[in-house]
UniProtKB/TrEMBL annotation:
CDD domains: CcO_II_C. This is Cytochrome c oxidase subunit 2. Belongs to the cytochrome c oxidase subunit 2 family. Component of the cytochrome c oxidase (complex IV, CIV), a multisubunit enzyme composed of a catalytic core of 3 subunits and several supernumerary subunits. The complex exists as a monomer or a dimer and forms supercomplexes (SCs) in the inner mitochondrial membrane with ubiquinol-cytochrome c oxidoreductase (cytochrome b-c1 complex, complex III, CIII). Residues 1-91 form the Cytochrome oxidase subunit II transmembrane region profile domain. Binds a copper A center. The chain crosses the membrane at residues 27-47, 67-85. The gene is COII. InterPro entries: CcO_II, CcO_II-like_C, CcO_II_C, Copper_CuA, Cupredoxin, Cyt_c_oxidase_su2, Cyt_c_oxidase_su2_TM_dom, Cyt_c_oxidase_su2_TM_sf. It comes from Reticulitermes speratus. GO terms for molecular function: copper ion binding; cytochrome-c oxidase activity; oxidoreductase activity.
Length: 231
């Protein structure tokens, strides 16, 4: 979860998010090299006193500054395309969770183990306790097993929404009349927070998402008592 004065990305809670952070750092290093080179050349041009009245063209330098950016773009594009294809892959999911966006709350359905449906509302400010986070905690959390491929199917009942968990690297639009799916796996136990990232009306800021990640054995135990999954 993002905290005060955190200028970097959140810690990755899924393999895809870890790869996105690596790609972000990789791209920043390339940008740093480009900025350093350009600044050095501009400084050199400003301070040197060398002039040449006879230099009318420089085919070598023109060829170099045309080819070099293309090579740099290849170094950025290859890992980017690899990540795009990895994010679209659905790797034999062990379970499916369906999320339905409403104004202004989320509904969830577990359809693999039991036909379990529930609504998830933000905890009102006056009911917030010391153990909860303002505008982020919900009355019913999603409980999911860690280290298991999970397929998320997202849709909406009224207007456009967007189901987003930054630490998982997941952002999926919820569109009325359409099913979008995404796959993810959670690395470690804990509580993950997210929000709707599509402006969907007056209370857009008040439909958070809370996931509680537990071990597979604990989740199987909970699935034997469907009502206990709603935490």
């Amino acid at each position: 979860m993002t905290t005060w004065l955190n200028m970097s990305l959140q810690d990755g809670a899924s393999p895809i998010m870890e790869q996105l952070i690596f790609f972000h750092d990789h791209t920043l290093m390339i940008m740093l090299m480009i900025i350093t080179t350009v600044m050095y050349m501009m400084t050199t041009l400003l301070w040197n006193k060398h002039t040449s009245r006879f230099m009318l063209e420089g085919q070598l330098i023109e060829t170099t500054w045309t080819i070099a950016p293309a090579i740099i773009l290849v170094f950025i594009a290859m890992p980017s395309l690899r990540l795009l294809y990895l994010m679209d892959e659905i790797h034999n999911p062990t379970m499916t969770l369906k999320a339905v966006g409403h104004q202004w709350y989320w509904s969830y359905e577990y359809s693999d183990f039991t036909k379990l449906e529930f609504d998830s509302y933000m905890i009102p400010q006056e009911e917030n306790q010391a153990s909860t986070f303002r505008l982020l905690d919900t009355d019913n959390r999603i409980v999911l097993p860690m280290n298991s491929p999970i397929r998320l199917v997202v849709t909406a009942a009224d207007v456009l929404h967007s189901w987003t968990i930054p630490s998982l690297g997941v952002k999926t639009d919820a569109t009325p009349g359409r099913l979008n799916q995404v796959s993810f796996s959670i690395n470690h136990p804990g509580i993950l927070y997210g929000q709707c990232s599509e402006i969907c009306g007056a209370n857009h800021s008040f439909m958070p998402i809370t996931i509680e990640s537990v071990s597979a054995n604990h989740f199987i135990t909970l699935s034997l008592k469907p009502k206990s999954i709603i935490s």
